[in-house]
Amino acid sequence: MRRKIEEQEAERASKYQQKIAQRKMEFEKIQMELEMSNRKDHLDFEERKLLNQMECEKLAEKSKFEQFSKNQEVALEIEIFTKQGLLEMEKIQKSREEAKRQNLEKSENLDRKFLENQRIYENEDIQRKREIDDQKKDIEEKRRKMDQKLEEDLENLRNQEEFRKSQMENEFSRIQKVLEMKICNEIVENNWTNRLNKLRNCFNSKFEKNQISEKMKYLESEKLEMRKIYEETGKTFLLDIEESIEEILEEFRRLEYVLENEPSNKSRIQECSSALSKLTLAIPTLAELKSRYKEDNDF
To answer: If DSSP states are collapsed to H, E and C, what string results for 90-139?
Structure first.
């Protein structure tokens, strides 16, 4: 068994050595082919290099010849150009002088045009400034007139307001006076009504003898008061009242005389009492006085 294994191992080793030898031969063959290919490439390169060098020399020689020919042509052309150049230079000089003259003329024209434009601009600027000044003056004048008109309107408004205020104050004062007068008239009328009623009721049929003297003093006082008020105011209705009071006083005097001298004369006493009652009731009321003196506007 061991021997068989050794034989197998020897066989495998032999096959392996054969493979290595075969691969070595193949490698050497490939290496040889590469060396031959390199030598061939080198020879081809050297050949191409030589051919290129020869071609370059031919081209250089050709270029020298062509350059010489060109130099000859250029020299000839330069000679021709030199001769023509003098003529061209003369033309160019004349052209330059003409251009210079034209430029100078253009420059002078431009200067004249600039000066003319500047003069026009200055005139326009002066005119524009004048117009601006005129506009400013016009605006100032309009503003002044507007301010004046506004002030006048404000003054008119103030005057109207003062006038309305004065009217309102006057109206209020008038109303107040009317109210005061009305109140005053009512008070006066009430006072006169009471005063006249007191005169109308100054006699009572059931009187006492000692009352007559007091009644007469009261009537005398009222009579004097009517005269005094009449002298102060000139109201004629006061004379009517004064006259009525005087008639009552006369009748009181008769009654006083009868009571003192004829106390038992009942008829005379009754007669005087009746007369006094009629006379006191004959004193006009306030309404009667208003109606009586309405047309004369004396009440």
So the answer is: HHHHHHHHHHHHHHHHHHHHHHHHHHHHHHHHHHHHHHHHHHHHHHHHHH
List pLDDT tens digits, range 90-121. 676 777 677 677 777 776 777 677 677 777 76
| C-alpha–C-alpha distance, residues 270 and 110, integer Å | 146
**C-alpha angle 109/110/113, rounded to 5°?**
85
Burial status of residue 272 (CB atoms within 10 A of its CB: 0-12, 13-18, 19 or more): buried
Indicate the burial class of 219 (C-beta count within 10 angstroms; 0-12, 13-18, 19 or more): buried
- Percent of the chain scoring above 70 in pLDDT: 64
Placement of tokens 């000859």 in the chain? 72
Contact indicator for 223, 242 with CB cutoff of 8 Å: yes
Residues 183, 189, 191: CA angle, nearest 5 degrees: 105
Model confidence pLDDT, tens digit, residues 106-165: 767 776 776 777 777 678 778 888 888 888 888 888 888 887 888 887 888 888 888 888
The SS3 call for residue 192 is: helix
As given in the structure block, the two tokens for residue 133 are 């000044």
Q: pTM for this one?
A: 0.42
Provide the residue count of the chain.
Answer: 299
| Separation in Å, CA 141 to CA 30, 127, 151, 213 | 120, 20, 15, 94
Residue 183 is predicted with a pLDDT of 66
Looking at this protein, which amino acid is placed at residue 126? Answer: I
Rg (C-alpha) for the chain, rounded Å, is 81
